[in-house]
Specification:
Elements lengths: L1 H38 L1 H27 L4 H29 L7 H27 L3 H11 L9 H25 L3 H9 L1 H18 L1
Length: 214
Amino acid sequence: MELDEMKLAWQALGQQLEKQQVLSVQLFRDSRLDRMRRGLWPLVWGQLLQLAIGVLFAVAAAVFWVGHRDVVHLVVCGLLVHAYGVLLIVFAARVLWLVQRIDHAAPVVAIQRQIAELRAWRVHVEAPVNVALGCFVWVPVLWMNLAWYGVDLWSLGFMSWAISSSLAGLAACVLVVWLMRKAGMTRRMEDSAAGRSVQRAEAALQEVARFERE
């Protein structure tokens, strides 16, 4: 009888330890996922700001090109800025959707896949497009702003200089990227494009994965 009681006691103790282990894992997971959630807020606020800027660009450009329908090059300029504003809206909406769809109750591996998709979008789509457009979009933006005050850069022979400057800027960006890849700084470059919020989320998930394995 005493032996049976000892077995039951050991079984009860084992079950209690197992429950405590499960509870500690859950508490650790919850704390790290909460940190991850809070760490993504700067990214969310940044995208909301980008969304507002995109709306501002799109509306201002629409008012501009509609008001200058009789001047072809000003219409083209306004349409380019309008398209850029819409692109800012689309890119911000895409990032916000990727953040919103993260299922914090899912297994860590599933959450890591969702964060990886967010990183891939920011690194392989958003960053290169923004860099390429950033080399050129300043031309129609400047053109449009000066046109509001009656200054038409077309008549001043500004176009050739603007295009050559934009191409030089794009070439410089390509050169910098190439040099960083040659120097083995690809990961640092990609981390910079992904942003600190994504990096913090990845680090929090890695901590949870390590703790669960142990």
